[in-house]
Specification:
Elements lengths: L16 H11 L1 E7 H13 L8 E4 L4 E7 L12 E4 L16 E5 L10 H20 L2
Antiparallel strand pairs: 1-3, 1-4, 2-3, 2-5
Amino acid sequence: METSQSNDPCTPPVTSVTSLTSAADDAGCDLVTVPARQGLEAVDILRRGAGDAVGPVLHDDGGDTLGFVVPAGTAAGWDVPGSTCTETDGRGLRLSPEPPVEGSDWLLPPGEADLATDPAVLRRALGEAARLIEAADSCR
């Protein structure tokens, strides 16, 4: 399995939470939102993969969704059915230990994850997760 390390992460390497927050404000990130069940499967797939890395992941308890932090610019070409990709352009998404939205929490917080998830790798993981869920549901 080949992975790309050339994705432009939304922030450069930093050494403090304050630096991380201001760097995210400067560069911005996009956010891919998926249903929680598919997102949790995708996180498992990404974490099991050889060399595939996953960036910070936000869990919205009320909306039962997961949000994957991806590099800025991803939203322009995102076309995965059942998901949305939102340009944040520094508006509201801050990569700090505190969740950026009330009622949400980090599943994989900044600092414990890569800077951003590679969109191509995420696309494959979401596809595999959808197939696994479909197979499991058809066995019931």
